[in-house]
Input
Amino acid sequence: MNLQVMDRGPGFPGNEISLIFNKFYRVEGSQPRGTGLGLSIAKGFVEAHKGTIIVENRQHGGAKFTIKIPAEIFKEDFKE
Output
């Protein structure tokens, strides 16, 4: 299963993008809201399902998160 979440915000500074999944990390200059745990928790959930989550900046602003979780579809699941 693949899932992408995109926004049109400012994106992430290039030198900080590799740090955003760290516990308690907050982008320098960001508003003092939250604990800095949200993306770390999301990564933990995805990895617990043997998946991956990556983030990249969009070309015209904003960020794009891509989540990939392996899944099997069994024919029996689609009985008529």
